[in-house]
Design goal:
By secondary structure, this protein is an alpha/beta fold. It contains twelve helices and nine strands. It folds into two domains: about 300 residues; about 55 residues. Strands 4-7-3-8 form a four-stranded parallel sheet, sandwiched between helices. A three-stranded mixed sheet has the order 2-1-9. Strands 5-6 form a two-stranded antiparallel ribbon.
Length: about 375
């Protein structure tokens, strides 16, 4: 334990210190949890129906509203993802996806808050299971047709080449092209290789979600997977990305690599996950550190999955994102004149504040210009 004064080195110093009253107690500030005085989540920014659900859900789960509201922003923004892009200027567009993280000690009930959201997502995926199975069967049929067409085309090519005189080789029919592996649709993953994540982003071009109760596990897996950290750094932007396959086969190009990251960190593990050189990973997160929930009698005022909350998620999932040709086509949402003036005021504030900061504090603050665009757009759609 560190003390207020440096440790004595001689017997005389020990005798003096023994009668020094300032040595009576250790420095208690070193035992603090580093949280400090933080405000609660401002639920008034949410529409009344959603904030009402949030209050009931938090009482039912025995958590604070922050434990649900912080990951809620990550989940809802990621469900929209690239389907809507917020436009600050013609040259500055941002996808909706936010990375959110609840910081809490073990036992401070960050897991029950996250499970409130996971139950809603799981219910939707369960209800969509018959559609997924039908899509799998249709894929298997297309695969078999492609194999048969390929056999016929190869036979026709052989006949044309062996003919006397030889004939022009027939063109490869479109039905003979390999349709690839079936990618099981998913709204989120909890543990996936970077190759699997890239395939899911290819199948769901508006973006995916990585949800982990303990995000330290995700960062540990990044150390074991070559290229994983680089992929996640790019997955915040939503741009084009090429994933090299581990087995040495052809690379996979993802037109829109966008992955929302939602979960929790224990304070000590948070520090170790971002140890080392600053690469911008820390700045991509929005953090919430709720106080431990006080005792409050549990209620049954909310069901396991509230219908109104499930309906909200479904509306976001079903936001149109295709053009008349069924091609993925993100919509652009420009700032209004008033919103742009507000944003310029915020950018000016950031420019003033960053001059007195360095390291991770500066990196996080600078990233907040993009964060505030995504957050404002997410709150708009929640309303």
């Amino acid at each position: 334990m560190r003390w207020k004064k440096s440790l004595p080195r001689t017997r005389e110093e020990v005798l003096v210190i023994a009668f020094d009253p300032s040595w009576a107690e250790p420095d208690a500030s070193l035992l603090e949890d580093r949280r400090g005085e933080l405000p609660e989540f401002p639920i008034e920014v949410l529409p009344p129906s959603l904030s009402n659900w949030l209050l009931r859900a938090s009482r039912g789960a025995g958590v604070r509203t922050d434990h649900i509201a912080v990951p809620l922003l990550g989940v809802t923004s990621s469900l929209i993802g690239m389907a809507r892009r917020i436009q600050a200027t013609t040259a500055w567009l941002e996808p909706m996806t936010l990375w959110t993280c609840v910081v809490a000690q073990s036992g401070d009930r960050k897991t029950p808050g996250l499970k409130v959201l996971l139950r809603g997502l799981d219910r939707i995926e369960k209800e969509n299971s018959p559609q997924y199975q039908e899509a799998h069967r249709a894929h298997q049929m297309r695969t078999q047709v492609a194999k048969e067409e390929m056999k016929r085309w190869r036979k026709a090519c052989a006949e044309a080449a062996n003919a006397s005189p030889s004939r022009e080789l027939p063109l490869l029919p479109i039905d003979a092209v390999d349709v690839g592996d079936f990618i099981q649709p998913a709204l989120y993953v909890q543990d996936a290789t970077i190759q699997r994540l890239a395939k899911l982003c290819e199948a769901r071009p508006r973006g995916m979600m990585q949800i982990r109760d303990e995000l330290s596990g995700l960062f540990a897996s990044m150390l074991r997977q070559p290229g994983a950290r680089a992929l996640y750094l790019e997955a915040w932007n939503g741009g084009r990305y090429v994933v090299e396959r581990v087995d040495g086969t052809r690379s996979l190009t993802v037109p829109n690599l966008l992955v929302g990251v939602i979960g929790g960190f224990q304070p000590d593990k948070l520090a170790s996950a971002f140890a080392g050189d600053e690469d911008g990973m820390y700045a991509r997160f929005l953090y919430g550190w709720p106080a431990p929930p006080c005792y409050c009698r549990l209620t049954d005022d909310v069901s396991e999955v509230e219908p109104e909350f499930q309906a909200l998620l479904i509306k976001l999932i079903r936001l149109p994102d295709e053009d008349v040709n069924a091609e993925f086509a993100p919509r652009v949402i420009p700032l209004s004149c008033r919103a742009r003036d507000k944003f310029e005021g915020y950018r000016k504030l950031v420019d003033e504040l960053k001059r007195g900061l360095d390291g991770r504090e500066r990196q996080w603050l600078v990233k907040c210009e993009s964060q505030v665009l995504r957050l404002a757009a997410t709150l708009t759609y929640l309303n």
